[in-house]
Amino acid sequence: MGQKVTIMTIAKAAGVSHTTVSRALNDSPLVQDATKQRIKEIAASLGYHPNINAKALVERKSYIVGAYFTDLDNGTTPAFMFNAINQARQSIPTEYSVAVNSFANIKPTVPSLAAPRCDGALVISQASSDDPYIQKLSQSGLPIVVVNRKANLPGVFNVVSDDQKGISTAVDFAISQGHRHFGLINGKSGFDSSKKRRLGTINSLQRQGLSLLSGCDQPGQYTFGSGYMAMKRILEAPVLPTCVVAANDVMAIGAMRACADAGLNVPGQISFIGYDDTAAANYCLPRLTTVHKPTREMIQVGMQWLIQEIGQHQLAHSRRKVIAPRLVVRDSVVKLN
After folding, report:
1. Which of 189, 218, 279, 280 is most buried, judging by how many CB atoms fall within 10 Å of its CB?
2. What DSSP character marks residue 104?
3. pLDDT attached to residue 313
4. How far apart are CA 240 and CA 255, in angstroms?
5. Given this model, what pLDDT does residue 71 score?
6. Which ranges constitute the DSSP H helices of 4-162?
7. pTM of the predicted protein model
8. Which band of pLDDT confidence, cut at 50, 70 and 90, is reported for residue 152?
9. Own/partner long-range contacts of 136-144 (Cβ < 8 Å, ≥24 apart)
């Protein structure tokens, strides 16, 4: 087994002091760029790996980023959570790790939310009920970026997607295909996405003088089972829709299964629109027409901003960035004559 490479090893190879090596590896302005580059190249050639625990102790950092969700047990689909966490890990420097928690698991009386102690918090927010917790994190002086939901909170950076516009684009497409009879399976009550996607659906219909059919405006919980049960209730309505809009792909797939169990052809008799563009949307039968939610892009931008904040770099851009969703047309919406 080879000898462990330390800062002293690099200093000896570079012919400089260990202080200069330490400063160079930490991008100190006290070391010239050419010297920094040479020291970093020597460190890489020797296979040097920094001791994060020692570095954290010296710099008074934990090298942990907290990722907070609204609720991991109810309303957050496994696919969304996996994609968000995976992208968060891919978007931070290698020396950082991600600690996942949810506000639903934290009591309001807890004096500090930053446990384990973290250097910053990426909040993947789904409901306005998160705001008191976000404010508490902000008041502690912790760098924070909120993604996924518009958050009008002082001093908090925000990366969002326009869910209302996204679903409107999808409904407009269905109308252009000749659909006039619509149903809706909405998401979890209290979630901002549920409100926006319902409003976008209704507004698009109203612009064409249309409305949701009686008995066809049903609640869901963003789960397969809730989509299935909501569709069973829609199938009991006096007039069946030719197109059902589901507030996410998971409920749309559950609803399509309910139609299959009832002996109905999809999309021949009932067409479906989902939201999120999960992997399952491209592999279910029929392949689901849906709205691509830019989760990867939101998390990537949010984490980049957070790391800049942690490094105390002044962010020159505005405090909010809106990333547009886009329609993905597949096979689940039939063109009517």
Report:
1. 218
2. G
3. 60
4. 14
5. 87
6. 7-14, 18-25, 33-46, 52-59, 78-90, 131-139
7. 0.79
8. confident
9. 137/68, 137/113, 140/112, 140/113, 140/114, 142/114, 142/118, 143/119, 143/306, 143/309, 143/310, 144/120, 144/306, 144/309
Phi, psi (degrees; rounded to nearest 5) at 335: -85, 125
What does the mean pLDDT of the chain come to? Answer: 88
Q: What is the Cα–Cα distance from 105 to 70, expressed in whole angstroms? A: 9
pLDDT tens, position by position, 236-247:
999 999 999 999
Alpha helices in 142-223 (DSSP H): 163-176, 192-207
> What distance in Å separates the CA atoms of residue 178 and residue 172, rounded to the nearest whole number?
10
Average pLDDT of span 151-168: 92
Specify burial of residue 293 (Cβ count, 10 A radius: 0-12, 13-18, 19+): buried
State how far the Cα of 77 lies from the Cα of 82, in Å rounded to an integer. Answer: 9
Task: Give pLDDT, residue 54.
Answer: 45
User: Would you state the structure tokens that stand for residue 336, as one six-digit string?
Assistant: 């009517």
CA 302 – CA 122 distance, rounded (Å): 7
Cis check for the bond before 267: say yes or no (omega within 30 of 0). yes
The kind and range of the H/E element at 216 are strand 212-218
